[in-house]
Amino acid sequence: MRPGTLYVVATPIGNLADLSERAREVLGAADHILAEDTRRARVLLSHIGVATRPVSLHAHNEAARVALARRWLRAGDDVAVISDAGTPLLSDPGERLVGAVIEMGGEVVPIPGPSAILAGLAVSGLPCVPFTFTGFPPRKAGRRARALERIIDATETTVLFESPSRLVGLLDELAARMRESGSEGAGSGMSAAPRAVRRVAVCREMTKVHEEVFRGSAAECAAHYREHPPRGEVTVVVEG
Fold this sequence. Notes:
The chain has 240 residues and is α/β, with parallel strands linked by helices. It folds into two domains: 5-111, Tetrapyrrole methylase, N-terminal domain (Cobalt-precorrin-4 Transmethylase, domain 1, 3-Layer(aba) Sandwich), CATH 3.40.1010; 116-238, Methyltransferase, Cobalt-precorrin-4 Transmethylase, Domain 2, CATH 3.30.950. It is built from eight helices and ten strands. It has a five-stranded parallel beta sheet, with helices on both faces. Strands 6-7-10-8-9 form a five-stranded mixed beta sheet, with helices on both faces. Helix 3 runs parallel beside helix 4.
């Protein structure tokens, strides 16, 4: 029996019209669908008329789901994996799954499409090549400090995610480490010497009704979002 195929399917980051025709076909034909959030997945699947019930795949159950997916694939079933939004595996679960399928000699097929990383980079106005994607900054102080220092020291553009509730804090920290005037953290002793002010683009709610891209220094962006508290998904792009 021919083993099944694992499809890594990109889904819209906001506007459901951005789902590709190929993604619709794959999701409609898949025997099983693994999804980071089954509730959000059901909204998408219902929108395109797919009745397959999604099965959860997240950080706390990935090991068990890998074993289940391997059984499905060995039985000849095709499996699709989707994230909450955008391209799976990028700050989302699925790496162990893809690695396990490759290890068993299975076929892994990408179904490309929306990505908040590339969308934010494209509209940032900053150099697109080379760039580094770092995901969400660590929360623990030591790891966070080292991660932010790497962003400040980088010669390439950096793309990262942050939650709305922590966005202003992140921008203040970046501004303070760059020693920008006007930042809440300026003068905190985080950095011994001034560094060149970097341009920053904050991309919020991309492809949705309240889409916004705010560009400026880290301090200017922090001041804007301190006055206008952000909501929704946030992608931050920092000049190298």
